[in-house]
Amino acid sequence: MSEKATFGAGCFWGVEMRFREMDGVIDATVGYMGGHVEQPTYKQVCSDKTGHAEVCQVVFDPERIGYEKLVRAFFELHDPTQVNRQGPDRGRQYRSVVFAHDDGQSQVAERVKAELDASGRYRAPIATSIEPVATFWPAEDYHQQYLAKNGGSCSISGH
Q: What is the CATH number of domain 3-150?
């Protein structure tokens, strides 16, 4: 039985690539969540007027990888202290956000965030928001596995 987790950590290309590399992740799809426009396009989301975040929705096998490990990986792969930006990418669509699919996910995400915030690891408070899951709108086909198909990098891909 698989479960889903959804994360926004800046440019979704690098987020997708990093999650796909993790053992226990079955699939990862980039898309948009958290806005007020139905079936948004990349162009609309980039206008910063739809309220959506670029996200990666991860399908995982909880017997092989726990949700907490995914949350910890999410915090590792970007700077969660940044507000509405990651690296050179700026705008609300690049915000740091965990979309929790249930109360259990919300509790884990809040606990890990509080632990990391209290650790002194970051120079500024963690800005990541933890919100209830909303409608997931898959991004256009050309965005799916973009870095694997086209090469290149983005600010958090680590490649």
A: 3.30.1060.10
